[in-house]
Amino acid sequence: MTSQPHLYTLPHPLPLESGALLPHVQIAYHTYGRLNAEGTNVIWVCHALTANSDVLAWWPGLFGPGCYYNAEEHFIVCANILGSCYGSTGPLNARTPGEGPWYQAFPLLTIRDLVAAHEELRQHLGIRHIHTLIGGSMGGQQALEWAVQQPSLFSNLVVLATNARHSPWGIAFNEAQRLAIFADATYHTASPTGGAAGLRAARATALLSYRSYQAYGQTQAEPTDDQLTDFRASAYQQYQGDKLVARFNAYTYVALSRTMDTHHLGRGRGGELGPVLAGIQARTLVIGISSDVLFPPAEQQLLARHIPGAVYAEMDSGFGHDGFLIETAQITQLLEQFHVRTAVY
């Protein structure tokens, strides 16, 4: 069960990379544990597309009592990203007090805008240094952007199943999902449940990029050879679509998938990714997943080649992109090896 987050309201509008201003910005966040006297035990988590700030709920096995990251040793912080529907300002929030929600009119957010909100929260919490910044997928994109912007702020950077620039392949997957949502006429009515059927189809599409051929073969194959309809794989897609509709909304999904598309560390910095990545100062662990078709290992290998001293590790997993959430035993082992190797823990 997800616990209730803390809420922080910015004292000023947030300037966006697009040139627009986002007024009345609220950030939802969770903290666990206590900041030590030296201020050296902060673990900051950047979450992925549809997650929330309660990292103990969605990353069990890596975060929590007895886990590698725990509140007994660390001060763990996770902020819900802007544009989301878990407490931070997003499309279902009012534009200004007394007005209706933004819906489709919610302004374009970039990964850099999400990082700007993290930075506002960091300053509000009085955190002067972050021991480890960690994120997977879209969370890894945020972590990389932040590490580029403020290289001296972080001692360690851990990124999983992510990239330096969102690929044409990833953008195409996101657009296919948005097309499914736009094809749902209710999306255009601007109501809280608008686009629900489209969102259900979008999630079913997305799942094909999150998992792998091997994973479906192992978990969704029919027990007999005489099945003609009502296949397990079909029911699984429907189930996953229903699960997301129960906790998310189409306007947020559209907004955040567009945010992911904007990720490009080289934009406005000369365009070349290598020199930008070379500016990261944190000791870095980059983790890829052998079966990831959405963020294939070549994207993580590029990161490791250009980040000074970075360690690259690849998990052998049949779970595809979702392996960064599931393979917590492997991730823990890689973290232990990394910190022994760099002698910082």
UniProtKB/TrEMBL annotation:
Where does the chain bind substrate?
Answer: 203, 322
Entry's NCBIfam families?
A: homoserO_Ac_trn
Complex and partners: Homodimer.
Its chief place of residence is cytoplasm
According to its UniProt record, which reaction does this protein catalyse?
Answer: L-homoserine + acetyl-CoA = O-acetyl-L-homoserine + CoA
Q: What is this protein called?
A: Homoserine O-acetyltransferase
Class of enzymatic activity (EC top level): transferase
Read off the lineage from the record. Bacteria, Pseudomonadati, Bacteroidota, Cytophagia, Cytophagales
